[in-house]
Amino acid sequence: MSKWYEEAIFYHIYPLGLLGAPKAHEEEGEVHRLKELDPWVAHMREYGFTAVYIGPLFESTTHGYDTKDYKRVDSRLGDNEDFRHFVEKCHESGIRVVVDGVFNHTGREFFAFQDLQRNRENSPYRYWYQDVDFGGNSPFHDGFWYRAWHNCYELANLNLGNPEVRNYLLDVVRFWIDEFDIDGIRLDCADCLSFDFMKELRRAAEEKKQDFWLMGEVIHGDYARWVNPETLHSVTNYELWKGLYSGHNDHNYFEIAHTIRRQFDANGGIYKGCRLYTFVDNHDVDRIVNTLNDKGFLRSVYTLLYTLPGIPSVYYGSEWGVEGKKEWGGDEKLRPCLKLSELEEKPPVPGLPELIRKLARVRAQEKALTDGVYRELTLTNRQYSFARILDGEAVITAVNNDDKEARFEIPCPVPGTEAAEIFTEKTQAIENGKIIWEMPAYGSAVFTVKQG
User: Fold this and answer.
1) pLDDT > 70: what percent of the chain?
2) Phi-psi region of 74 (alpha: psi -120 to 50; beta: other; left: phi over 0)
3) What kind and span of H or E run contains 98?
4) How far apart are CA 34 and CA 31, in angstroms?
5) Is the dihedral of CA 259, 264, 268, 272 positive or negative?
6) Given Cys at both, which of 109, 270, 310, 449 links 278, Cβ 3.0 to 4.6 Å?
7) Does the pLDDT at position 171 exceed 80?
8) Which distant-in-sequence residues (6+ apart) come within 8 Å of 171 by Cβ?
9) What is the pLDDT of residue 422?
10) Mean pLDDT across 226-237
11) What is the pLDDT of residues 350-371, one digit of tens each?
12) CB atoms < 10 A from the CB of 141, how many?
């Protein structure tokens, strides 16, 4: 039987942005913005999302990744009780909750770093951070040097080789499971974390909650180093993310097909059996609407997101076609404050919400889209079709990135006499083992073929 995360459709929320929190702590005490998420839970359920990745949440100084207190919800969002309410409301709606685990570094206001500033060589936390050198200096003129994440000295790298640090962070994870009943953690900067720490984390989390999910942020590298029975369950599939937009912009479906073949093909796929976390945008990259040269590609991009191997995720606002691009290297435009009622009334890309709801329904109904074997069927620069096959039945996806109609002749990989297309709700006869389909410009189709 599949675990919940193997069948999940994720919604991704950056709460400081969505709820309009100030960039830094300009307000006194807690501001209970998390309560504004109640209608968003109903929205997630309506759109077929079965899990939410929400973060960062730890009390921080600015953007959420400069942690100040690991056991307190950021006061710009509310208090611990507010988040407990959110988790309960999600669980009542059948939605699992995954939070950000920022364990590679802390902010400068974290208690251990402040003790290091005060007591220097005499601090009991001098070995909590990487390469502390009291003969050097930092850009903040601390009178000592320390290693920072990508030389961003507001983010001081923790020394995960220190058992005290690892035990502290494992206690943090236990705390979030005990206090809030969270279902998983997305590990920020997982490609910077030690594998020994991730192994300890896997054991500790599963002792607390057997089906607890660990997903890592990994940009480059061999994903199988992280995704295995000892470390993480999944990582971010940045390789496919790149292919999904550039394969359309360049009219080059060979790029997407090559990526999937390399990763998941039944014969030789290097990540066969892995469930990677698939996305078309997130809080760190430009919105897919801005990345694509032509908004007409959105239909096929999202059709691929929901039907290719992987665990699909939609970033808040992108289900309506909300725009956002990095400016001067900053991420603020990627993380906007949104009003649910306004977007429901007037979506920036009409028709996109209906498409995503339909894709969620077919994914929930067709187990082949989560567990089925991948098989490529046809491929040109501008047309691509493939199947997900399970127990003698198939779900077949066909996409057209051309600005004109295309005729598809798709070989059916399983016995059958007719194919039901989910968007048009039309039934197409299978003749001589093929599905013949006239695809409109920028079109996509998803067929189900049942036995009998």
Assistant:
1) 100
2) beta
3) strand 96-101
4) 9
5) positive
6) 310
7) yes
8) none
9) 96
10) 97
11) 999 999 999 999 999 999 999 9
12) 7
Two tokens, residue 96: 């699992």
Phi (first) and psi of residue 95, to 5 degrees = -110, 125
- What lies within 8 Å, CB to CB, of 98 at 6+ separation is 10, 51, 52, 53, 54, 55, 182, 183, 184, 185, 186, 213, 215
- DSSP reduced 3-state for 230: coil
Instruction: Judge whether 329 and 283 are in contact, CB under 8 Å.
Output: no
pTM of the prediction?
0.97
pLDDT of 452 higher than 80: no
**Residue 126 one-letter amino acid:** R
What are the structure tokens assigned to 218, written together? 């990994």
Do residues 76 and 33 lie in contact, with contact meaning Cβ atoms separated by under 8 Å?
yes
* Placement of tokens 């607890």 in the chain: 212
Q: Which amino acid is at 399?
A: V
Write out pLDDT tens, residues 246-287: 999 999 999 999 999 999 988 888 998 899 999 999 999 999
Q: What is the pLDDT of residue 421?
A: 97
CATH topology of domain 4-106+157-365: TIM Barrel (3.20.20)
- Residues 275 and 228: their CA atoms lie apart, in Å, by 10
3-state secondary structure of 410: strand
- Pairing mode of beta strands 67-73, 58-60: antiparallel
First to last CA, the chain: 25
Angle, helices 163-180/80-92, rounded to nearest 10 degrees: 60
Alpha-carbon Rg of the chain, whole angstroms? 23
Phi-psi region of 112 (alpha: psi -120 to 50; beta: other; left: phi over 0): alpha
- Is the pLDDT at 199 greater than 70? The verdict is yes
Topology (CATH) of 372-449: Immunoglobulin-like (2.60.40)
Place of tokens 């940045």: 238
Among 311, 244, 263, 369, residue whose Cα is nearest residue 98: 311
**CA 196 to chain CA mean position, Å:** 24
pLDDT in tens, 45-68: 999 999 999 999 999 999 999 999
365 sits in which H/E element:
helix 352-365
* Dist. CA 320–CA 7, nearest whole Å: 23
For residues 404-409, average pLDDT: 97
pLDDT confidence tier of residue 26, bands split at 50, 70 and 90: confident
